[in-house]
Amino acid sequence: CSRPQKVCLCPFLPVHPLKVSTCLYIIQHPAEESRVLRTVPLLAACLPPDKCKVLIGRRFSEDRYPELATVCRNPNTLILYPGAEATNLEEVALMPSSPSVMIIIDGTWSQAKDIFYKNSLFRLPKQVQLKTSISSQYVIRTQPTNTCLSTLECAAVALSIMEKNKSIQETMLRPLQALCSFQLQHGAQIHHSKEHLLKNGLYDKPMPKNKRKLRRMELLVTNVKI
């Protein structure tokens, strides 16, 4: 896990990489690479190298990324990005020919949106989303809503659905739970979602002056899907 021995997460990782048929392509925003407490390294440590490929950048052209372009044009590729055009992954997983590749964008919501809409390649695969009500266990980082999940959590839930194996989710979340536990023991605070803070009158930062951002925060309070 490349962490100091005192907070080593290796005992919480699977002894052997998980055997999965699905290959993940993690499209990581450059800002995520410099974060100390990020989840993608833990995700990669749970899977064989050929089943988890991380590409870092903001723009992905067909000329610079021919392998990615081929993947995006493959009819068996999915991209995990919620929205009106997205199909619930559970429905797709029931189809006779199971998809073999999934693309997941790693970054804040605004960073992920920028990557998704400014790269035409990512609108070629079938768009899917997770229909889940579970709350994020990544409690040391603030999420927009209670049900927003980290990249590791998204991958864990998605793989458990696609591989039809619930134990995959439990195994992959174990190092994340340990990471949060270590951080809380060493002075970190639990980060409630913006949704929770706003609804309970605990949001102590200045409200945004930008009308679009202010509207998004109002929608969080009223439970309107954004």
From TrEMBL:
Q: Transmembrane stretches, by residue range?
A: none
Q: Cite the DTW domain residue spans from the record.
A: 1-188
Enzyme class comes to transferase
Per its UniProt record, what InterPro entries does this chain match? DTW, DTWD2/TAPT
- A GO molecular function for this record? tRNA-uridine aminocarboxypropyltransferase activity
Top-level taxon of origin: Eukaryota
Q: Does the keyword tRNA processing apply?
A: yes
| Key words, A-Z | S-adenosyl-L-methionine, Transferase, tRNA processing
Q: Which reaction does it catalyse?
A: a uridine in tRNA + S-adenosyl-L-methionine = a 3-[(3S)-3-amino-3-carboxypropyl]uridine in tRNA + S-methyl-5'-thioadenosine + H(+)
SMART domains on file:
DTW
For this chain's UniProt record, which GO biological process terms are given?
tRNA processing
State which Enzyme Commission number(s) the record gives.
2.5.1.25
Family note: Belongs to the TDD superfamily. DTWD2 family.
What name does UniProt use for this protein?
tRNA-uridine aminocarboxypropyltransferase
Organism name? Struthio camelus australis
